[in-house]
Amino acid sequence: MPPRLLFRRLLSSAIAARSPEVSSAAAPRPTDPALLLRLCTVLYQHQNAPDGALQRRLSALQLPSAPADLRELFLQASARFPLSWRPMHRLLAHLTARHGFAHSPTTAARFLDVLAKSSNVDLLHSTLLSLPPGLLSDAALRAAIRGLAPAREVGKVSALLTLFPEAHRPRLLDFITEVVCSVCKLPDVAEKVIKQAEHRYGLSRSGRCCELLVVAYCRAGMFAEACSVWNGMEKRGIEPGAVAYEEIVVTLFKNNRFSDAMKVFDGMRKRGLSAAGGGACYHAVVSWLCKEGRTWCAFMVFAEMVKKGVEVDGEVLGDLVYGLLARRRVREGYNVFHGVKEKDIALYHGMMKGLVRIKRAREATQVFREMVASGCEPNMHTYIMLLQGHLGKRGRKGRDPLVNFESIFVGGLVKAGRTLEATKFVERTMWGGVDVPRFDYNKFLHYFSNEEGLTMFEEVGTRLRETGHVDLGDIFLTYGERMATRDRRRRAMNGRLTEVQDCSCLSSQESEAS
To answer: N or C end of the chain, less CB within 10 A?
Structure first.
């Protein structure tokens, strides 16, 4: 069992053993909205008032008496003040003094989360130390770490290890490292916490901690620190995992250190990582080799994947197809594409991206029609890629004076009230020779993805088809049918628009043939 899951199971068993009265409590009743509104109003308006004045106004409210109802009221109120600690702190003091309020693991975690988001480090730390061990769930610890780590309170974060027995401290150290690296994205703080734990409590870092540090340092752009941790793993005799290898290789590729990346990859293969563990690294290497144009090397790695039994998914095949098309090996790319029986969206995207790269937008649109006809649902990236292939990243001047980039997209921005974004494109239309930024097709589609945009997409698509732009017309019509509103997107994902779209595809193919 992974250490994280085992640690959570130990926490849940400890909570169940130490607080049986919480688990046996009755389900809370729904909170009265009027009471909740009045309570939040009082807390907000009198959060800085003297204690006596606030107590009188809170005592005038008819708060529930059942413990479960009080906890539900506290949770509802804390949801109204997620970033303000004072109202919830004063409400907690009132409920504890007048109603005998006792925390549950859920309310304790929520209160710690409010304190962490409001950056009240001292109150967060004191509250955490005052809680009984039975209330320290993984959610409570995660909230406390999220508040202490950004404030760089290394000593207070490492002191969390003292709240648990010595047998659980190694797993808790892995948990702290994971939260600080993955959630807070502060690998330097995580490494300082690990060093303090080693010096003060005699713990030793595990392979999981080192792997998290390597990944976090690479993603933060601190490659020198990642290499330092990597070398420390070798000195301690810790074997890096597949995730660490993949992140190091990808970072080296991003830094244009191709030879070093392949050396690390060869080291992974020589050390005999299993095919299942090294599959992600194989995928990353194939993807980057195709991006670099080294198609021959990519196919060698692909053959090794097949030989070792590594799972080959649509992303790998899509990268291979894109690599072939980018090198203008179109026939081989089509052979690989048609050789796959069950195609997914990644393979279709690789095919369309390669065709757009070599200026074959018409063929990319035909692949798009096959994609929809086969039941594979396009996403926003599909439409943006096709629009960029037909119209360019900055927009091209069309042949028809009435139906072109300026009339559709620039005019659409003006109609949507985005005149500032359309200024440069209008200047280019009027005077020419003006450098314009990249046109954001994503925002344009977002502006008209509503009920009013349905008519626009239908009209524009019909006008484009009438003027001979059949491919662009099909793209607009398909987007209006399947993506313009949330309801249409849901129906398309459930497969209810397949028959309608199949008819439009057939009609478009007939018009092209004529």
So the answer is: C
- The long-range contacts involving 422-431, CB below 8 angstroms and separated by at least 24 positions, are 425/395
The answer to whether the Cα torsion of 231, 236, 241, 243 is positive or negative is negative
Task: Name the 3-class secondary structure at 141.
Answer: helix
Compute CA distances 368 → 189, 245, 348, 375, whole Å: 47, 36, 8, 11
Tens-digit pLDDT profile for residues 124-175: 999 999 999 889 999 999 999 999 999 999 999 999 999 888 889 999 999 9
Report the alpha-carbon distance of residue 275 to residue 302 in Å, rounded: 13
- Residue that is written with structure tokens 């450098």 in the block: 435
Q: Taking each helix axis from N to C terminus, what angle separates 51-59 and 85-99, rounded to the nearest 10 degrees?
A: 60
Q: Which residues, in sequence order, are CB contacts of 466 under 8 Å at separation 6+? A: none
Q: If we measure between CA atoms, which residue out of 125, 110, 45 comes closest to residue 73?
A: 110
Distance CA 324, CA 354 (A): 8
Rounded to 10°, the helix 138-148/169-178 angle is: 60
Q: What is the pLDDT of residues 429-475, one digit of tens each?
A: 667 766 777 788 888 888 888 887 788 888 888 888 888 889 988 99
Whole-model pTM: value is 0.75
Say how far apart CA 115 and CA 89 lie, in whole Å: 9
Dist. CA 225–CA 230, nearest whole Å: 9
Residue 64: both structure tokens together: 């529930």
In the block, which residue shows the tokens 């509802």?
76
Nearest-Å Rg of the Cα atoms of the chain is: 30
Predicted confidence (pLDDT) per residue in 370-397, tens digit: 999 998 889 989 999 998 888 887 776 6
Cα 27 from Cα 460, distance rounded (Å): 55
| pLDDT computed for residue 21 by the predictor | 41
Contacts of 101 (CB under 8 A, 6+ apart): 67, 70, 71, 74, 92, 95
Cα–Cα dist 417/275, whole Å: 54
Burial 145-181 (b: 16+ CB within 10 A, else e): bbbbbbbebbebbbbbbebbeeebbbbbbbbbbbbbb
Residue 63 — φ and ψ, nearest 5°? -80, 150
- Region class of 375: left (phi > 0), else alpha (psi between -120 and 50), else beta: left
Q: For 307-349, what is each residue's pLDDT tens digit?
A: 888 888 889 999 999 999 999 999 999 999 999 989 999 999 9
Hey, what are 377's tokens? 């649902």
Q: Which among 336, 340, 338, 366 has a CA at the least distance from the CA of 352?
A: 366
Distance CA 383, CA 365 (A): 10
pLDDT for 166-189, tens place per residue? Answer: 889 999 999 999 999 999 999 999
